């Protein structure tokens, strides 16, 4: 199965519509900060024949498959193995002073979920890996087998919002003394047994939050996102646009707060007049976080948790946009 068959881009039409006004000019530069299998990028390259695409991904397998999918556009595409908080360095290396659009499609890609040996899915037994970049130094098994009970409880609570984090962490530490953790089925069973039966009746699979927390810790996802979004905003040209697609509340909170900060003036609130050049530099384009339609959910169940936020840069330093 090739990349185009295995990947259904989430909220494709809406994402294209949000970024389209920034890509209308000839030679516009679009960054797909989370290239994955290239589904969103393919749509942009088809619809905007004059844009240049820069695709980033930390996963070498994703870059290879996306490269195959987007081969018809190779004269307008550049692919870079990088984490998205490295955007300033990537743009400097490519000699690109500013970009017109950037898309963040966060979370785990379809390919990573579908490949059992990556260990992202709690519903099938696999090695406890969870690295988005398979050359990274730390796996989920490393964390489970070496972190203290307090540190395990901290990441389960902070990154998984798991109410029973201490109980699960203590159980992991006890169990690993008998045998180190290597596979996801054992962890999934442990989590289920650690959660009271009444609490298992709601909220989906009992291990979902634990697997999310481990994946975030393995890949440093939230720390990377906190650095990446301000970097992306600084890289936007005037009237450039950003779209952020989040799949869990922690990511969405960071996106919401970062974009909201750009809509505030940088002078004291009690000033009667905002001096020229100090107006907010961002305009929010979405009303809250947009969600998929019922039609999309029926066609693509993986879109169920997505939240989409977007903004446009309406000022650069020293310039007011009328």
Please state the structural category.
Answer: alpha/beta
Q: What is the C-alpha radius of gyration, as a whole number of Å?
A: 21 Å
The percent of residues in helical segments reads: 40-55%
CATH class of the largest domain: Alpha Beta
Report the end-to-end length measured between terminal Cα atoms: 50 Å
Classified in CATH, the superfamily of the largest domain is Vaccinia Virus protein VP39
**CATH architecture annotation name of the largest domain:** 3-Layer(aba) Sandwich
What's the number of structural domains? 2
Q: What is the strand content? A: 5-15%
Organism: Kribbella antibiotica
EC number: 2.1.1.199
InterPro entries: RsmH, SAM-dep_MeTrfase_MraW_recog, SAM-dependent_MTases_sf
Subcellular location: Cytoplasm
How is this structure best summarized?
The protein is of the alpha/beta class. The chain has two domains: 3-105 and 221-313, Rossmann fold; 116-219, DNA polymerase, domain 1 (Orthogonal Bundle).
Keywords:
322 residues, alpha/beta, Rossmann fold, DNA polymerase, domain 1, 7-stranded mixed beta sheet, globular, Ribosomal RNA small subunit methyltransferase H, S-adenosyl-L-methionine, cytoplasm
Your description of this structure?
Pfam families: Methyltransf_5. Keywords: Cytoplasm, Methyltransferase, rRNA processing, S-adenosyl-L-methionine, Transferase. Specifically methylates the N4 position of cytidine in position 1402 (C1402) of 16S rRNA. It is a single chain. The protein folds into 2 domains: 196 residues, Vaccinia Virus protein VP39 (Rossmann fold, 3-Layer(aba) Sandwich), CATH 3.40.50; 104 residues, Putative methyltransferase TM0872, insert domain (DNA polymerase, domain 1, Orthogonal Bundle), CATH 1.10.150.170. Helix content is 42%, strand content 13%. The protein has 14 helices and 7 strands. A 7-stranded mixed beta sheet has the order 3-2-1-4-5-7-6, sandwiched between helices. Helix 12 runs parallel beside helix 13.
